[in-house]
Amino acid sequence: MFSNRVELRKRLDGIREAGLYKNERQLLSLQGPSVRTKQGTALNFCANNYLGLADDPRLVQAAHEGLEQWGYGLSSVRFICGTQELHRRLEEDIARYLRRDDAILFSSCFDANGGIFEALFSAEDTIISDSLNHASLIDGIRLCKAKRMRYSNRDVGELEQCLRDAKEADSRFTVIVTDGVFSMDGYFAPLPQICDLADTYDALVMVDDSHATGFVGPQGRGTAALMEAEDRVDILTGTLGKAIGGASGGYVAAHQEIVDMLRQVARPYLFSNTLAPALVAGSIEALRIAREADEEREHLRKMTERFRNSMKDAGFEVLPGTHPITAVMFSGENGAQEATTIAREMLGLGVYVTAFTYPVVPRGKARIRVQVSAAHSADDVDTCVEAFTVARERI
Ligand SMILES: *Cc1c(COP(=O)(O)O)cnc(C)c1O
To answer: Which of 107, 116, 136, 369 to mutate to test the pocket of ligand 1 (most atoms within 8 A of CB)?
Structure first.
């Protein structure tokens, strides 16, 4: 037997020596506004639990009922014998919510993004992608034979140059692909300008709205709805693993032919198991709640504003914006060290946040990414700010 253990150990040591080794902290509790770990109880400011639904009893109940009525699993992919009435109901709900013809479920948004490009585009086409797009978009684009172009994050000037180049190259279809919200900064994509360019150059627009659906824009319909560009976006993808319940599952919502084609040929759809019925039932309830959660969205907005303002008042550098993702920057020479140490100190003070350093973010742009949730109270937010201040004094 030949073993690669020595080689792997070296690489693992390399990751450790570079200070990039990710140790997973085990929770001893549900995912909620506060969590229990071996280090004690801490307010949780690093989950994508924007609407606070992850431990919502209504979702737990709905999932229970789904489990009772529809069983544990389907032991099949969708097209063989893995589609229950329930799955279609969720797809129709998503389509109606996002105002598209139809929607199609995947096991995750990672899979949705992994499957869509190869299914829809080929060598005659061009895919133009924002440089900070999510890893799943990057991988999905790689799996497809289309020409690839990239523009700097949210730079519509560079995007236009790409569109010109695509036109010159006589591309059949050109598609612009962007995250609705960039998760490391909490910045929104400039969708109206992107859509204007798409109109000028006859391009399609695809938006992955994983960090927006459920809590951004009217009814939480997302970034495009917020910017009144909803009917100008051709393809929406998103996750059920963030605001919409936080379990798992992803989807593509688009016009009928796109959804129909994905059902025929998208590989993660054809060759990966059906989403478990309990999750589908939970997601239907999560979507129902999200649609009507104006109060929670308003509370989330207020808590986000409170956090951002208090942090600025306390002298922290915070990237501008309104999204609950708030990047607290540590830009100095020792920024990475500072961010990491402060995050560690804060856990001792009962606040759980995570530091992001190179290579997850560019060198010199270390940060602690705070994610506010509708489940946080004003006191929780104030406690978080206080912990930042105390931790900073300690280092
Ligand atoms: C989280 C995220 C994904 C992955 O979603 P999963 O359903 O967890 O696979 C994809 N795209 C973006 C932009 C995300 O933020």
So the answer is: 136
- Selected from 3.30.9.10, 3.40.50.300, 3.40.190.10, 3.40.640.10, the CATH number assigned to the domain covering 57-290 reads 3.40.640.10
Q: Spell out where the chain has E strands.
A: 34-37, 40-44, 102-106, 126-130, 147-151, 174-179, 181-182, 187-188, 204-208, 235-239, 250-254, 317-318, 325-330, 351-352, 354-356, 366-371
199 labelled ligand-binding: no
**C-alpha 110 to ligand 1 mean position (Å):** 6
CA distance 62 to 107: 19
**pLDDT by residue (tens digit) across 121-176?**
999 999 999 999 999 999 999 999 999 999 999 999 999 999 999 999 999 999 99
Asked whether 108 lines ligand 1 (CB < 6 A), one says yes
Is domain 23-51+293-394 given the CATH code 3.90.1150.10 in the classification?
Answer: yes
In the residue annotation, 183 being an active-site residue is answered as: yes
- Residue 48: other Cβ atoms inside 10 A: 18
Upstream peptide bond of 359 is cis (omega within 30 degrees of 0): yes
26/32 Cα distance (integer angstroms): 14
Place of tokens 């591309």: 171
Place of tokens 């969590």: 35
Q: Domains of the chain: which residue ranges? A: 23-51+293-394, 57-290
pLDDT (tens digit per residue) in 318-359: 999 999 999 999 998 899 999 999 999 999 999 999 999 988
Q: Is 141 in contact with 127 (CB distance < 8 Å)?
A: yes
Quick check: CB of 179 below 6 Å from ligand 1?
yes
Distance, CA 168 to ligand 1 centroid (Å)? 33
What is the distance between the alpha carbons of residues 2 and 383, in angstroms, rounded to a whole number?
Answer: 54
